[in-house]
User: What shape does this take?
Amino acid sequence: MNQQSLQTRMTLAAGGLPIAMVSYESQNRVYYILTSEEALRARRAVASAAVADAARLRAFLALRERRPMQPNWEMLQTALFSAGLSVCPTSGSPVFSLEDCSPRLRTALWDVLVAMQAVINDKTPGATQQFEAALAVLRPMVERRAQA
Assistant: This one.
């Protein structure tokens, strides 16, 4: 479910207008359609507020870009670890205690994850070499940490 659909549904529900959402799949992605005239009006209002000026439009378009962001990942990891979770409940990926890691180690770990994503998802040329290079930087740091 995208952010606009979620905000629209919440707005309608808060206003006492529960709405049905019909899902459909296209090209291995799930999409939702809000069904009613009120839903269409509310969705248009949310969308127009999201792109009301050039700065908001740029921010909105930036959200649509597929690029990993290390600060958000670090905040998420810290919050999940502080909550006592060892696995992210939404992705199933492992949770790391980044508070004990140096900034250099956090960056190296992040670089490996981004390179791995490029190999697995994007299949970009040279991605395997970038992954190997990132792993070569991370490996000695992890080995030193394991011996400590």
